[in-house]
Design brief:
heterodimer, A: alpha/beta, Rossmann fold, two-stranded antiparallel sheet, 8 strands, 44% helix, B: alpha/beta, 2 domains, 6-stranded mixed beta sheet, 12 strands, 19% strand, globular
Chain lengths: 304, 332
């Protein structure tokens, strides 16, 4: 990890992602967007860690729930917000909607709304690195729902067979839309799949952004050395509704509002809560104030 | 040379294979990949004699067509060109997601000039006797689904024009070979005009009829052209590919001159390229008469022969007689 990504900067970045997602959620509540949007409350720790671990030569391939990662890579709310308003000033010139937002200038090459579709594309990007003899790795996101697709297995086999520098990152939030894993399928042991093809596997849980950053750096380093692909499975909770604003309807049991502060849920499921436990309340509150001041300084007026 | 000094014409397969092998060997950093690409029969001969391009790769891959298609688009985004070789058009159905979804994202925001070239070379099992599966013969339907160009190679001349150009062109396309034609002698008609980089090829001028060949029906059209010539008539002969919008103004001009159009289409699609052409002819050449020779409405899904029935003499008589038949009632 570079010096720039000291622990306080990781904490600050996590809180920025949380704040920006609050802004997006409030805008959704006020129906400011015509496109469907998948907010990613609860994904901030892993998104911060992935972005911190990425080197300039690395590439990122995302899913439909790409908001936290795109915000982390852009380091700025405006390009994504503008994209959601279909503005030509958006990161994709207002042509990509929300589920396919890419930002090649910041390493985000592709995002797919089709479950399992993106792993093979990541394999192609990694194969291109081999052919062009370029350094770097390709990090591709998938989830516990997408890995049910045959494309997941195909991609694992292809990446391993060609020894591609691909890190497959499984975000396991236990949900595919509104169905939990027990409601829809048998358990799948990702570690066993990785063992079956002789591929390294790293499990992550707990939402500790500092620990996640160290783990990502270790995984990235192993893959960058050219030993072939690896898989990192992170347990997390998506704290908001599948799509649209939260609350999504008058009696929605989930309620998210910036007025309640940065933290959405006082449990280890919330990376902001875990950060507060780690830093202590005083330091956490000071960092939150710092982020709020910083964002007030350049957030477009009247947006949230 | 053959016995007695007679010139031995290559087969369709040999001619097409030679063009593919020669063109692919000259493209730097090109990735050639596919199942059984360099083992066994080399995919029925399609990939025989392939050489690893300079700086490129030749990869024999496992059985995962969906992933292979996605890989091609990933390479394309990175500016690396590739050719995926596939044994059967049926297998490509597994990769349609990428033609449509992935390529749409690429097309929505990437600079087309900076994309790599991605071509799928695929064999259509149109030789018959394959049974309920392995007989998918509707290249145009795949192209229409994803709004991508598709080229059906029907002779040595169209292969020589289309393959070298398309393998270098940024973006995506399908190039299909006919397994029915594999053992046949390669036709090598002179190309008189080429509109849209292989979209519409004209092989013959003519005054009595216009013959348009879609999918792999060119040998039928060429045979009909020769029959007409034997009877003192001439026909403009065209081959059309699945390129949208279709640049077939030259065909319309021919129909306006000859007044008689015969469209041959041996695909199994319900929505034929010929239907669009007939609609344009009806609008732009109102006095013209037309025939559409296509498959029967009911196609046996079981094991059977797989030939387009063409009544050459009857068609020649129709051209000679000038029997009235409005375009709107053409076809069967």
């Amino acid at each position: 990890m570079s010096q720039a990504w000291a622990s306080d900067e990781l904490a600050r970045q996590l809180l920025r992602l949380r704040y920006w997602q609050h802004v997006m959620n409030e805008a959704l509540k006020h129906k400011r967007f015509t496109i469907p949007i998948h907010v990613a409350f609860g994904h901030e720790a892993i998104a911060t860690a992935v972005s911190a671990a990425m080197q300039p030569e690395d590439q990122l391939v995302l899913t439909h729930r790409n908001m936290a990662y795109n915000l982390a890579r852009a380091g700025n709310l405006t390009p994504l917000y503008e994209e959601y308003t279909l503005s030509p000033a958006g990161v994709g010139q207002g042509r990509l909607g929300s589920m396919n937002v890419a930002n090649p200038a910041q390493g985000v090459e592709y995002a797919s709304s089709i479950l399992g579709n993106n792993i093979s594309v990541a394999c192609g990007l990694a194969l291109a690195k081999q052919v062009k003899q370029q350094p770097g790795i390709v990090i591709v996101l998938t989830g516990d729902g997408a890995m049910e697709e045959g494309a997941f297995y195909e991609g694992v086999v292809f990446a391993r067979s060609q020894r591609l520098r691909v890190l497959i990152l499984v975000e396991n939030n236990n949900y595919s839309m509104s169905s939990t894993i027990p409601q829809r399928r048998c358990p799948i042991a990702v570690d066993a799949i990785c063992r079956a093809v002789n591929m390294p596997y790293w499990p992550l849980a707990g939402n500790d952004v500092m620990g996640y950053a160290r783990a990502l750096e270790e995984a990235r380093s192993a893959i960058a050395q050219g030993q072939g692909p690896g898989c990192l499975e992170v347990q997390l909770s998506t704290l908001c509704q599948h799509a649209g604003p939260t609350p999504g309807w008058p009696t929605d049991p989930k309620c998210i509002s910036l007025e309640r502060g940065f933290i959405v849920e006082d449990t280890p499921n919330d990376p902001a809560f875990v950060l507060k436990q780690s830093l202590g309340a005083d330091q956490f509150d000071a960092l939150c104030d710092e982020v709020l001041d910083e964002q007030r300084a350049w957030a477009p007026a009247g947006r949230a | 040379m053959g016995p007695g000094g007679a010139r031995v014409m290559p087969s369709y397969l040999q001619a097409v294979n030679q063009v593919i092998a020669s063109a692919s060997a000259q493209i730097p950093n090109l990735v050639l990949y596919g199942e059984n690409i360099n083992t066994g029969s080399h995919i029925c001969g399609m990939t025989r004699n392939l050489k690893t391009p300079p700086g490129g790769r030749l990869i024999n891959v496992g059985n995962c067509e969906l992933t292979h298609c996605g890989v091609g688009f990933g390479l394309m985004m990175a500016g690396v060109s590739s050719i995926l070789f596939v044994k059967q058009l049926d297998f490509i159905v597994l990769g349609i997601d990428h033609f449509i979804s992935t390529y749409n994202v690429v097309r929505a925001h990437r600079d087309p000039a900076r994309l790599g070239s991605f071509t799928i070379c695929v064999i259509v099992c149109d030789q018959g006797w394959q049974g309920p599966q392995s007989s998918f013969n509707a290249l145009g339907d795949l192209c229409s689904l994803a709004r991508v160009p598709g080229y059906a190679l029907t002779n040595a001349s169209d292969a020589a024009r289309i393959v070298p150009a398309q393998l270098r062109a940024p973006g995506f396309r399908l190039i299909a070979l006919s397994q029915r034609l594999f053992p046949t002698e390669a036709l090598a008609p002179e190309v008189l005009a080429d509109d849209g980089a292989g979209a519409v090829l004209q092989y013959s001028p003519g005054e009595d009829a216009t013959i348009v060949c879609a999918n792999f029906s060119f040998p039928h059209g060429w045979m009909l052209h020769q029959r007409l010539r034997e009877q003192g008539m001439s026909a403009g002969v065209f081959g059309v590919n699945y390129v949208h919008p279709a640049p077939w103004q030259r065909i319309l001009e021919s129909v306006a001159r000859t007044g008689r159009l015969i469209v041959l289409d041996d695909s199994k699609s319900v929505h034929l390229l010929g239907h669009s052409l007939l609609a344009d002819v009806a609008r732009q050449c109102p006095g013209a008469r037309a025939r559409l020779i296509s498959r029967e409405a009911e196609i046996d899904p079981g094991v059977c022969a797989d030939q387009l029935a063409v009544e050459y003499e009857e068609l020649a008589s129709w051209v000679a007689s000038g029997q009235p038949e409005p375009v709107a009632e053409a076809g069967r």
